[in-house]
Amino acid sequence: MQPSRSQPARVSARSRVHAAFPRSRPSFAAMVSIMTIAFGSVLAGCAMPTHPDSAAPPTDPYNPAATQLLDDTQWQLASWANADGKTRPVPANPGVTPGADGEPITLNFSTQGGQRKTNGFSGCNRFTGTYDLSGGKLSFGPLASTRMACAPGPGSTLEQPFLQGLADIAKTGVQMQPPRQLQITLQNGDVMTFTQRAQP
């Protein structure tokens, strides 16, 4: 009987690979770096992109004119800006004798008698007529005016452009915050701004 020979231990192919290329564990610092990069990528993906044109435009303080904002109110012309940005001098002395140069240009609205009527002072003469509001836009019917001789001054200079402007309105707005203002933009781009007068 022949003596038994010891059988060599079988070594698998996977064990040979592991022996040739031992697995190394990543260091703690490397793991922290990997997690930081991954977390930053997630945050970058969640960030909302901004567009240079996405900024909200400034709020227009003037609301479209409505009947409840203009009916039974009185206004005084405070400024007149031309389309090119230049301003026209306006009379603004309420203490002068009515009809004298320097008396403010005024625009009044009334609903007495069940009809919308307007009247005011145009710089030299008095005017009367009717008004209407449609779609936030103010419009006037034919205006009748006195025919007084006008002395030279800001009022007489503005009278004809003012009356013509009331016939060529492009846009109307009312600012509700004090001081309450009425802004009338004309077809030629001029802007007339009125301040509200106290009721007599």
Automatic annotation (TrEMBL):
Domain DUF306: 68-194
PANTHER family: DUF306 DOMAIN-CONTAINING PROTEIN, HEAT SHOCK PROTEIN HSLJ
Name of this protein: Heat-shock protein
Organism listed in the record: Caballeronia mineralivorans PML1(12)
